[in-house]
Amino acid sequence: MDMVKAAKELLLQDRVDIFLGYHKLDGHQIPHGFTKARVADLDQLEISLNRYPLEKIACDLAQKDPTLKIGILARDCSQRALNLLYTWDQLNPENIETLTVNCCPSSLSTHGDCSYLKPKTTGEYKKAHGIDYNDSPKDFMAEHDSQDRLSRWMYEFQKCIKCYGCRNVCPVCFCKECSLEHPNLVEPGVLPAEVPIFHLIRATHMAGRCIDCGLCEDACPAHIPLRMLYREVNDAVSDIFGYVPGDHIEKSPFSIIGKTVELTPAPMDV
Amino acid sequence: MTLKRIAFVQELLKFMGLEGRLHLEWISSAEAQKYVDVVTKFTEKIRNMGPNPLRAINEMKKAG
Amino acid sequence: MDCEFVPSVCSYCGTGCGVLFEVIDGRINRTLPLKSHPVNQGKLCIKGWNLHEYINSYMRLKGPLVRENGRLEKATWDEAVNQAARRFTRIKEEHGPDSIGVLVSAKITNEENYLAQKLTRAVIGTNNVDHCARL
């Protein structure tokens, strides 16, 4: 297989120290870090039907060793996530090699439902469970008036069990301190989570960040249509700021750390 | 930048069904009359819209 | 650097969600839900998401401690078990077997739970046995 050969070459030519891909263990397709010492393991390299945030794992590795060269099996969403992480200086593009693979080879999996990237379509898993949340935000706006929208979102948000899974699985959530854990913003130890502030904080923080990979919705035990919410956030960001997160490596309009400015010394008025 | 950020939050609130409850205006400390006008107008607008629907929901939740 | 992933089962409650530990250089660094697990289907609750924290906690109890003169002292398993047996026997003789209750856990296996109730009923001689997941 070409993919295996390419990954082997990356490792053998020392272009990467570790290659993040998937393999099968105990019948589960799970991520694995392949190394040069055990290069033969790469024969078991798979494009998993289950997506895991490989970019987040790469960030973990880079935090332990910033000079580590990492190879990643990258779908389209991974590529967008990587671009965003380069933008925010979480990963160094010089240390990352990607092997691009086809996005969602089939309907991705029963759990990782990527099939509704096309608006107005419902994936198999969602069909089987009677979930039909695949409206595009624009249709949702057009079809419901403001009272409808409020009651719908309040209904969705009140299902939240506050597992923080959306944040924990998110490949672009890299902050050391999270506003969702700040006791003055979100009251700790209360269920259901404070609505709608918990979700709106996360939604605003997804502005200019969300790369629409859908992992948050996959991980949500309460089936909250987070992807639609964040897609609306993204639409607003692209309308207002003219910025599409992860499209290519550029400075984000949300970055507050700017260029250094030097003030010319001038005499003070007395 | 502030203008854009507020426009973004307004957009998000609109999507949530809470439009019209956020307003941004530049007023210099010298423009007393403008300040009065803006605040009066916005207060009136908010009053006409009625209480925040989230408050009713949260009170219901507290009551169980 | 070494990075591997170990599928496992969440040890918090009786549901048995599949988790995936991210192990970097022999240390568990992160917990992810096991997406292909039939029980949780790629979802976890807040306890499952933070499994790695108690594994790495410095407060974690790694061996038996016995309280002597008001202080917890490290002990061997033999000492600890003998001490517990001695004290339980004394309590049972002084106050009767119903003065002892046993609370077992969802964190241990079915077989261990069975053994615990057997010990309670047959050895201690009381029906005071309950389980944290008996909702």
UniProtKB/TrEMBL annotation, chain B:
UniProt enzyme class: oxidoreductase
Kindly list the GO molecular function terms attached to this UniProt entry. Answer: iron-sulfur cluster binding; metal ion binding; oxidoreductase activity
Keywords from the UniProt entry: Iron, Iron-sulfur, Metal-binding, Oxidoreductase
Family matches, as Pfam families: FlpD
- Residue ranges the record marks as coiled coil: none
- Domain F420-non-reducing hydrogenase iron-sulfur subunit D stretches: 3-50
Tell me the InterPro entries matching this sequence: MvhD/FlpD (IPR003813)
State which Enzyme Commission number(s) the record gives.
Answer: 1.12.99.-
- Organism superkingdom: Bacteria
This chain's protein is named Methyl-viologen-reducing hydrogenase subunit delta MvhD
Q: What is the lineage of its organism?
A: Bacteria, Pseudomonadati, Thermodesulfobacteriota, Desulfobacteria, Desulfobacterales
Q: Which gene encodes it?
A: mvhD2
Automatic annotation (TrEMBL), chain C:
One GO cellular component term of this record is: membrane
Give the enzyme's main class according to its UniProt record, as a single word.
oxidoreductase
Q: What is its EC number?
A: 1.2.1.2
Give the source lineage, highest ranks first. Answer: Bacteria, Pseudomonadati, Thermodesulfobacteriota, Desulfobacteria, Desulfobacterales
> Domain named 4Fe-4S Mo/W bis-MGD-type: which ranges?
3-59
Key words of the record: 4Fe-4S, Iron, Iron-sulfur, Metal-binding, Oxidoreductase
InterPro entries assigned to the protein according to its UniProt record, in alphabetical order? Mopterin_OxRdtase (IPR006656), Mopterin_OxRdtase_4Fe-4S_dom (IPR006963), Prok_molybdopt-oxidoreductase (IPR050123)
Q: Which GO terms describe its biological process?
A: respiratory electron transport chain
- Tell me where on the tree of life, at the top rank, the source sits: Bacteria
UniProt-recorded Gene Ontology molecular function terms? 4 iron, 4 sulfur cluster binding; metal ion binding; NADH dehydrogenase activity
Q: What is this protein called?
A: NAD-dependent formate dehydrogenase subunit alpha
